[in-house]
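User: Show me a protein chain along with its predicted structure.
Assistant: Here is one chain, sequence first, then structure tokens.
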Amino acid sequence: MHQAKQKQAKGSRWWILGGLAAGLLVLAVGIGALLPIWVVRWLGGKDFQRLVSQQVSSILKTEGEFEPLEWSSFSVYSPGFISRPGAVGPWLWNIREIRTEISPRLLFDRILRFPEITMGSLEIKPGSSTALPSEMNSRTASSSGSSGDLFRDVQIGKIEVLDFRLRPGAATSGWGIQGTRVLVKPGKQKTEFELQNGEILNPFPFIGRVDLVKAKGRYVEPTIFLTELEMKGKNGGTLQISGEGAPTSPPTAQGSVSWNRWPVPGGRIGVGLFEVLATMSGEFSLREWRPGGPVGSGQVRLVDARLEPGKGSETILGLLAALTGEARLRGCPLTTAQATWDLQPGVYDVREILAEAPGLLRAVGRVRVVGQSLNGQIQLGLEQNLGQKVNALTGGECFTRMEGGYLYQSIQISGTLNQPKNDLQPRLTMALTRTAIRTGAQIFEKAAGAQGGAGGDAAGQAVNVLKTLFGPAPK
């Protein structure tokens, strides 16, 4: 009887354990079936949307919100993220067409993993302040701290932006970019980036359109390393930049720039002596960045250079052409046109200037530009016969030093970039006036001699007065 009761008790326990096991199995199946639904509802709900908005706002140093998140399994899509109207911060963001996937291990290891994030477009424009207010920083920090209880880390494989735009503004000194494809690979130690195509917006109308070909580099806080940057000008010239810089206080930078057949600013170059139509090639080495601007040195070579007078005949070249009757001075190619230059904040020191059209003229010298002010000296050499003509017309004042088949004249440069001056132009203008007066006097003298009488005596006296004022005619 006792043994029968023990068997019955064992049987009851097995039934209870079996029932519990079956109940746990049903519960597990139910949780397994309902958990994805619950997770998707939570991920697509307001709480998760607000949490992600806080995380992204903290990273981008702005105040913004995601538009509703749409989930399909663990793939997510959002129409965009945008900074709130009137939000303060260094930059305002507008991100459209965001697509990504989140690892299903999200709830187990509390790490947000994004293998790849794609954005249809990303537009950034300068904000209303360079940094977030302290109260906003504390609020962002507290929200990040609360979210940190849920997420231990955020890991991103790569970010691809199909259309990146940076609006010009005071914070970018008028520079910007549009229509650029961007690929970013963030990491713990460094972030690699690559840009392709697009138009670089610049604050200088005379430069015209500049297109980005490609750019590569990496970011290791706080320094940006630019390993390759290539741009193309509207006329086919190319420009390449490499270097590194950090937006510290004061900022630091060093690198090199090279360009080939790049347009001369304004299309022409000159300091009141003449004008040169050309494109330019050269190199520049940036040594440091001081509070007032860059410091470095470089070389420039003018390509396909053509020497011409300036507007009208007021430049030295125009006056020389009028005095000598040499047609080539009204336009001739330069076989050599080059210079070296040093740059400091607000100061351009252009030295070792050399320009030559063999058998016609040669110019060497140095010009210093401080702000808008000009100061320098140019040694201008004319072919010997041409130099002798000008020397005679100026009464032996100019082009007196002979060297290498040229007669040289020292020219002092002064004034400003907009209104350059030199000390040779007044003397050439006077020589041109003398020549015109003498020519008129000779015509007058011949006419008076043909008439004879008192009228001839009066004309002869006028001619003598003119000769006394302007000196003897050249022989």
